[in-house]
Amino acid sequence: MRVWVLGCRGSTPAPGPATVRYGGNTSALALAMDDGPPTLLLDAGTGLVNLQEVLGGEAFRGALLLSHLHWDHTHGLPFSPATDHDDAAVDLRLPAQRVPAHEALARAMSPPHFPIGPDGLRGAWSFRGLEEGRVEAGGFEVLAREIPHKGGRTFGYRVVAPDGRSLAYLPDHQPTALGTGPHGFGPVHEAARALADGVDLLVHDAQYTVEEFPTSQHFGHSAIDYAVALAAVAEAGRLLAFHHAPTRPDDELDELAARFASTVTFAREGDHLSV
Ligand SMILES: [Zn+2]
Ligand SMILES: [Zn+2]
To answer: Cα(255) to centroid of ligand 2, in Å?
Structure first.
Protein backbone atom coordinates (compact mmCIF):
# COMPACT_ATOMS: atom_id res chain seq x y z
CA MET A 1 0.00 0.00 0.00
CA ARG A 2 1.18 3.50 -0.74
CA VAL A 3 -0.04 6.53 1.16
CA TRP A 4 0.21 10.19 0.26
CA VAL A 5 -0.29 12.83 2.94
CA LEU A 6 -2.17 15.50 0.98
CA GLY A 7 -2.92 17.60 4.07
CA CYS A 8 -2.28 17.04 7.78
CA ARG A 9 -3.26 20.30 9.49
CA GLY A 10 -6.15 20.25 11.94
CA SER A 11 -9.21 22.42 12.36
CA THR A 12 -8.49 25.17 9.82
CA PRO A 13 -5.88 25.78 7.11
CA ALA A 14 -2.68 27.36 8.38
CA PRO A 15 -0.70 28.81 5.46
CA GLY A 16 2.32 31.05 5.93
CA PRO A 17 6.07 31.09 6.43
CA ALA A 18 5.87 29.36 9.84
CA THR A 19 4.16 26.24 8.44
CA VAL A 20 5.77 25.66 5.03
CA ARG A 21 7.63 22.49 6.06
CA TYR A 22 4.77 20.54 7.68
CA GLY A 23 2.15 22.20 5.53
CA GLY A 24 -0.99 24.20 6.14
CA ASN A 25 -3.65 22.23 4.27
CA THR A 26 -6.23 20.24 6.20
CA SER A 27 -6.86 16.49 6.37
CA ALA A 28 -6.70 14.33 3.28
CA LEU A 29 -4.91 11.06 2.48
CA ALA A 30 -4.67 9.17 -0.81
CA LEU A 31 -4.13 5.39 -0.80
CA ALA A 32 -3.00 3.16 -3.65
CA MET A 33 -2.36 -0.53 -4.03
CA ASP A 34 1.06 -1.49 -5.34
CA ASP A 35 2.07 0.64 -8.31
CA GLY A 36 -1.40 1.74 -9.37
CA PRO A 37 -2.90 5.19 -8.96
CA PRO A 38 -4.74 6.08 -5.74
CA THR A 39 -8.19 4.49 -5.56
CA LEU A 40 -9.16 5.48 -2.03
CA LEU A 41 -9.24 8.92 -0.43
CA LEU A 42 -9.69 9.52 3.28
CA ASP A 43 -11.26 12.92 3.94
CA ALA A 44 -11.54 15.94 1.69
CA GLY A 45 -9.84 18.77 3.55
CA THR A 46 -8.10 21.53 1.63
CA GLY A 47 -5.17 19.14 1.06
CA LEU A 48 -7.29 17.38 -1.55
CA VAL A 49 -6.04 19.98 -4.02
CA ASN A 50 -2.67 18.17 -3.93
CA LEU A 51 -4.18 15.02 -5.45
CA GLN A 52 -3.76 16.47 -8.94
CA GLU A 53 0.01 16.31 -8.55
CA VAL A 54 -0.11 12.64 -7.46
CA LEU A 55 -2.29 11.77 -10.46
CA GLY A 56 -0.29 13.84 -12.94
CA GLY A 57 -3.35 15.71 -14.12
CA GLU A 58 -5.50 12.59 -14.56
CA ALA A 59 -8.94 12.31 -13.00
CA PHE A 60 -9.49 10.37 -9.78
CA ARG A 61 -11.62 7.24 -10.00
CA GLY A 62 -12.41 5.47 -6.77
CA ALA A 63 -13.89 5.90 -3.31
CA LEU A 64 -13.79 8.83 -0.88
CA LEU A 65 -14.56 8.14 2.78
CA LEU A 66 -15.25 11.12 5.02
CA SER A 67 -14.50 10.64 8.71
CA HIS A 68 -17.07 13.34 9.55
CA LEU A 69 -18.49 16.53 8.13
CA HIS A 70 -16.50 19.27 9.85
CA TRP A 71 -15.29 22.00 7.50
CA ASP A 72 -11.63 21.00 7.73
CA HIS A 73 -12.53 17.56 6.31
CA THR A 74 -14.80 18.72 3.49
CA HIS A 75 -13.64 22.11 2.22
CA GLY A 76 -11.38 20.58 -0.42
CA LEU A 77 -14.30 18.98 -2.25
CA PRO A 78 -14.97 21.76 -4.78
CA PHE A 79 -11.30 22.77 -5.13
CA SER A 80 -9.61 19.54 -6.18
CA PRO A 81 -9.01 19.41 -9.95
CA ALA A 82 -8.51 15.62 -9.82
CA THR A 83 -11.97 14.99 -8.37
CA ASP A 84 -13.85 17.98 -9.78
CA HIS A 85 -13.09 16.69 -13.29
CA ASP A 86 -15.25 15.60 -16.22
CA ASP A 87 -13.63 12.14 -16.17
CA ALA A 88 -13.75 11.66 -12.39
CA ALA A 89 -15.81 8.90 -10.80
CA VAL A 90 -16.15 9.30 -7.04
CA ASP A 91 -18.07 7.07 -4.65
CA LEU A 92 -18.34 9.35 -1.61
CA ARG A 93 -19.48 7.89 1.69
CA LEU A 94 -19.94 9.56 5.04
CA PRO A 95 -21.18 8.46 8.46
CA ALA A 96 -24.93 8.05 8.02
CA GLN A 97 -26.88 11.05 9.26
CA ARG A 98 -30.56 11.60 9.95
CA VAL A 99 -30.90 12.96 6.41
CA PRO A 100 -29.55 11.49 3.13
CA ALA A 101 -25.81 11.93 2.56
CA HIS A 102 -26.30 14.36 -0.30
CA GLU A 103 -28.56 16.56 1.80
CA ALA A 104 -26.16 16.51 4.76
CA LEU A 105 -23.33 17.73 2.53
CA ALA A 106 -25.52 20.35 0.88
CA ARG A 107 -26.28 21.96 4.24
CA ALA A 108 -22.78 23.44 4.20
CA MET A 109 -22.10 23.31 0.47
CA SER A 110 -24.86 25.23 -1.31
CA PRO A 111 -25.93 28.87 -1.69
CA PRO A 112 -25.74 31.14 0.23
CA HIS A 113 -22.75 29.42 1.91
CA PHE A 114 -21.10 28.36 -1.35
CA PRO A 115 -21.90 28.93 -5.04
CA ILE A 116 -22.59 25.28 -5.91
CA GLY A 117 -23.98 22.22 -4.22
CA PRO A 118 -22.68 18.63 -4.42
CA ASP A 119 -24.53 18.22 -7.73
CA GLY A 120 -22.35 20.94 -9.20
CA LEU A 121 -19.18 18.85 -8.94
CA ARG A 122 -17.99 17.64 -12.34
CA GLY A 123 -17.67 13.93 -13.06
CA ALA A 124 -19.77 11.00 -11.86
CA TRP A 125 -20.42 11.26 -8.12
CA SER A 126 -22.45 9.13 -5.77
CA PHE A 127 -23.20 10.14 -2.17
CA ARG A 128 -24.06 7.51 0.39
CA GLY A 129 -24.39 7.19 4.14
CA LEU A 130 -22.32 4.54 5.83
CA GLU A 131 -23.06 2.58 8.98
CA GLU A 132 -20.49 0.94 11.23
CA GLY A 133 -19.10 -2.32 9.92
CA ARG A 134 -17.15 -3.71 7.01
CA VAL A 135 -17.32 -2.35 3.51
CA GLU A 136 -15.30 -2.48 0.30
CA ALA A 137 -13.98 0.88 -0.90
CA GLY A 138 -11.66 1.50 -3.83
CA GLY A 139 -10.54 -2.15 -3.80
CA PHE A 140 -9.62 -2.03 -0.09
CA GLU A 141 -11.39 -3.78 2.76
CA VAL A 142 -12.53 -1.18 5.27
CA LEU A 143 -13.80 -1.40 8.83
CA ALA A 144 -15.75 1.70 9.98
CA ARG A 145 -16.24 2.31 13.68
CA GLU A 146 -17.75 5.30 15.46
CA ILE A 147 -15.34 7.14 17.72
CA PRO A 148 -15.95 10.03 20.14
CA HIS A 149 -15.38 13.55 18.80
CA LYS A 150 -17.10 16.83 19.44
CA GLY A 151 -20.05 17.86 17.30
CA GLY A 152 -21.20 15.28 14.80
CA ARG A 153 -21.02 11.57 14.13
CA THR A 154 -17.40 10.61 13.49
CA PHE A 155 -15.89 7.40 12.14
CA GLY A 156 -12.40 6.01 12.31
CA TYR A 157 -11.40 3.67 9.50
CA ARG A 158 -9.25 0.58 9.33
CA VAL A 159 -8.11 -0.06 5.75
CA VAL A 160 -6.64 -3.37 4.61
CA ALA A 161 -5.07 -3.87 1.18
CA PRO A 162 -5.45 -7.15 -0.71
CA ASP A 163 -1.89 -8.09 0.31
CA GLY A 164 -2.81 -7.67 3.99
CA ARG A 165 -1.00 -4.42 4.68
CA SER A 166 -3.11 -2.15 6.87
CA LEU A 167 -3.66 1.40 8.05
CA ALA A 168 -5.90 2.91 10.72
CA TYR A 169 -7.14 6.49 10.37
CA LEU A 170 -8.48 8.38 13.41
CA PRO A 171 -7.85 12.04 12.58
CA ASP A 172 -10.30 13.56 15.06
CA HIS A 173 -10.73 11.69 18.31
CA GLN A 174 -11.72 12.76 21.81
CA PRO A 175 -11.31 9.66 23.98
CA THR A 176 -11.81 11.69 27.16
CA ALA A 177 -15.51 11.76 26.23
CA LEU A 178 -15.49 8.19 27.57
CA GLY A 179 -13.60 8.93 30.79
CA THR A 180 -10.21 10.03 31.97
CA GLY A 181 -8.39 6.73 31.35
CA PRO A 182 -5.26 5.64 33.20
CA HIS A 183 -3.19 8.76 32.45
CA GLY A 184 -5.88 11.42 32.03
CA PHE A 185 -5.85 11.31 28.22
CA GLY A 186 -8.87 9.04 27.87
CA PRO A 187 -9.28 5.26 27.78
CA VAL A 188 -8.03 2.99 25.01
CA HIS A 189 -11.60 1.97 24.21
CA GLU A 190 -12.88 -0.98 22.25
CA ALA A 191 -13.54 0.85 18.96
CA ALA A 192 -10.07 2.41 18.95
CA ARG A 193 -8.55 -1.01 19.64
CA ALA A 194 -10.59 -2.66 16.87
CA LEU A 195 -9.42 -0.04 14.38
CA ALA A 196 -5.76 0.03 15.37
CA ASP A 197 -5.07 -3.54 16.44
CA GLY A 198 -1.88 -4.72 14.73
CA VAL A 199 -2.01 -2.21 11.88
CA ASP A 200 1.14 -1.39 9.96
CA LEU A 201 0.46 2.36 10.17
CA LEU A 202 -1.68 4.25 12.68
CA VAL A 203 -2.61 7.77 11.56
CA HIS A 204 -3.96 9.52 14.64
CA ASP A 205 -5.11 12.87 15.99
CA ALA A 206 -2.14 14.47 17.77
CA GLN A 207 -3.41 17.98 18.17
CA TYR A 208 -2.28 18.74 21.72
CA THR A 209 0.74 18.40 23.95
CA VAL A 210 0.33 17.30 27.56
CA GLU A 211 0.91 20.90 28.59
CA GLU A 212 -1.94 22.16 26.40
CA PHE A 213 -4.32 19.30 27.05
CA PRO A 214 -5.97 20.47 30.31
CA THR A 215 -7.21 23.70 28.74
CA SER A 216 -7.82 22.39 25.21
CA GLN A 217 -9.32 18.92 25.47
CA HIS A 218 -12.88 20.25 25.31
CA PHE A 219 -12.30 21.12 21.64
CA GLY A 220 -12.64 17.42 20.85
CA HIS A 221 -9.11 16.17 20.18
CA SER A 222 -6.36 13.94 21.53
CA ALA A 223 -3.07 14.47 23.28
CA ILE A 224 -0.05 13.14 21.41
CA ASP A 225 0.56 10.87 24.39
CA TYR A 226 -2.81 9.19 23.85
CA ALA A 227 -1.85 8.33 20.28
CA VAL A 228 1.42 6.88 21.59
CA ALA A 229 -0.44 4.81 24.19
CA LEU A 230 -2.94 3.49 21.65
CA ALA A 231 -0.14 2.58 19.23
CA ALA A 232 1.64 0.67 21.99
CA VAL A 233 -1.42 -1.22 23.23
CA ALA A 234 -2.53 -2.03 19.68
CA GLU A 235 1.02 -2.97 18.65
CA ALA A 236 0.81 -0.73 15.60
CA GLY A 237 3.90 -0.90 13.41
CA ARG A 238 4.30 2.84 13.06
CA LEU A 239 2.52 5.95 14.37
CA LEU A 240 1.96 8.99 12.20
CA ALA A 241 0.98 12.04 14.26
CA PHE A 242 -1.71 13.90 12.31
CA HIS A 243 -4.12 16.84 12.53
CA HIS A 244 -1.53 19.28 13.86
CA ALA A 245 -2.89 22.29 15.74
CA PRO A 246 -3.31 25.23 13.33
CA THR A 247 -1.33 27.42 15.72
CA ARG A 248 1.66 25.03 15.78
CA PRO A 249 4.63 26.39 13.79
CA ASP A 250 7.20 24.14 12.14
CA ASP A 251 9.78 24.81 14.86
CA GLU A 252 7.44 23.45 17.52
CA LEU A 253 6.68 20.38 15.43
CA ASP A 254 10.43 19.83 15.10
CA GLU A 255 10.73 20.00 18.89
CA LEU A 256 7.89 17.51 19.33
CA ALA A 257 9.40 15.24 16.70
CA ALA A 258 12.63 15.26 18.69
CA ARG A 259 10.79 14.67 21.98
CA PHE A 260 8.94 11.62 20.58
CA ALA A 261 11.68 10.56 18.20
CA SER A 262 11.67 6.87 18.95
CA THR A 263 7.90 6.34 18.74
CA VAL A 264 6.26 8.93 16.48
CA THR A 265 6.63 10.34 13.00
CA PHE A 266 5.01 13.76 12.59
CA ALA A 267 3.12 13.91 9.30
CA ARG A 268 4.19 16.42 6.69
CA GLU A 269 2.12 17.50 3.73
CA GLY A 270 3.70 15.84 0.70
CA ASP A 271 4.85 12.71 2.55
CA HIS A 272 4.70 9.58 0.41
CA LEU A 273 4.85 6.43 2.51
CA SER A 274 5.11 2.75 1.68
CA VAL A 275 3.05 0.76 4.16
ZN1 LIG B 1 -10.59 17.97 11.99
ZN1 LIG C 1 -13.60 17.39 13.59
So the answer is: 25
